[in-house]
Amino acid sequence: MSAPQPIGSALTREAILRALSSLSDELGKQGVTGELCLFGGTVMVLAFTARLSTKDVDALFQPTPLIRNLASRIAEEQDLPTDWLNDGVKGFVSARHETTAGNLPQFPHLRLTMPVPEYLLAMKCMAARIGGTTDEPSDVTDIIFLIRHLKLNSAKEALDLVGQYYPTNRIPVKTQYLVEGLFEEGNV
Q1: What's the rounded Cα separation, in Å, for the pair 82 and 125?
Q2: Separation of alpha carbons 23 and 78, rounded Å
Q3: Cβ atoms within 10 A of the Cβ of 169, count?
Q4: Which residue among 17, 64, 72, 155 is least packed, with the fewest CB closer than 10 Å?
């Protein structure tokens, strides 16, 4: 087993799995099966192994108060950031919320789901974070990975896909510029 994650560091696959396993165990002690719909970097780490770590576990979860309480305890026990598991993503969920279990690991008392890849790409494009410093998150690598994974051949295809999940008038201009730039520069 690897060493505990220091506060403020990135969460590796091993650290995430250890924390989720503990969460499943704690839910089981209470006779509850929880549900987590994972998003963002966690999906890129666990389902696609497209990167080594993420800063936190973005998820929608049920039962919310119980899981929030248990996650706080697990953070303390495993030296994880206090917000290692959070539902800050809820403001970005599409009305067309399509999920799958994909190839996510499953636990006895914790069911994991994730957005279908098309929906995950749409979410990443909507955020369109380009980073800039080492501390700033960037969605660019994930967007490139998902465009390749989905075998999209043009910026129009990618942007049409975003439009299937979000109203066209809500798609930021920066999203269009980013996606078009990726294709024009030959990054995808």
Answers
A1: 27
A2: 12
A3: 5
A4: 64
Beta carbons of 161 and 122 less than 8 angstroms apart? yes
Work out the end-to-end distance of the chain between its first and last CA atoms, rounded to an integer number of angstroms: 37
Please report the pLDDT score of residue 133 as a whole number: 67
Q: What is the pLDDT of residues 35-57, one digit of tens each?
A: 999 999 999 999 999 999 999 99
The predicted structure's pLDDT at residue 3: 38
CB 97 within 8 A of CB 78: no
Residue type, 142: D
- Count, in order, helices (H) and strands (E) of the chain: 7, 7
Q: Given strand 99-100, what is the order of strands in its sheet?
A: 85-86, 57-62, 34-38, 110-115, 99-100
Task: Report pLDDT for 188.
Answer: 87
Neighbouring residues of 161: CB distance < 8 A, sequence distance ≥ 6:
118, 121, 122, 150, 152
DSSP state of 122: H
